[in-house]
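We now fix the convention by which a protein and its fold are recorded. Think of the row as the fold of the chain written in a discrete alphabet. Here is one such record, which you should read through line by line.
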Amino acid sequence: MPPSQKGALLVVLAGACYGAIPVFARMARADGVDSASMVFLRFALSAVALMLWMHWQKLALPRGRTLLALIAMGAIGYSGMSLCFFAALKTVPAGTVSLLLYLYPALVLLLSALLFGEHLSRTRMAALLLSSLGMAITVGGALSGALSGVLLGVGSALFYAAYVITGGRYAWRVHPLAATTVVMASGAASNALLQLLGQDLQLPASASGWLGVVLLAGVSTVAATALFLAGMARVGASRASLLSTSEPLFTLLLAAAFLGEMLSATQVLGGALIISGVLLAAAEKAKKLQAATG
């Protein structure tokens, strides 16, 4: 298999691993694990595995402002996104939550324009409009007494947009594995603090619950990270970002197969518009990177 095809396959497999998060989360939640405990266990187990991986690769931890930025990304951005995402799964179908999370590319464009004065080209405007329309249709199809869950889904996209903006300014300075390790470790630390402040740690009550937690950390974090980094090394960051839009599609398929969740026709339409907006934004970024590299 040519390296480019192998790389594309690896990135798509990473999308499948990430897309399985709601299935594994439901396994843990059914065994009594709440959102905060689930996030802590996922981050803590992943951080240990990633630190061992870093040691094997002989990578050093980042320092200075980059380290502080990565800590904030994990403790606030990624942790906030995960808490909102898992909490939303209580009342909203997994496919809908995954689609709402994928509003983050449009939010990155909007926040970058508002906060840093970045130019909104016609392509970016079209991406924003498509994603906004898709959100309106998706949310409209999900409002069956689950408004809080929908708002949490949008909140997960906001947290992740802040995470991506910060990462775009700092994380590129270090090896992706080192950056991921710091993010996971700081996320585990911030959620450990939540536990100390009064949120009781709820451990799984049986083997099936522990299996869900271990799969969250092992498959949907460590393995997904390894597959994505290996694929990105072969196809480049731009193409990898386009291929990563397969994640919500895998979530829809896995949620239908294992959770019995089916989206309505309007939610499918809304999801298609959101993904179209993501693809537009990613395609423009890919063109700019290609032009910059000659």
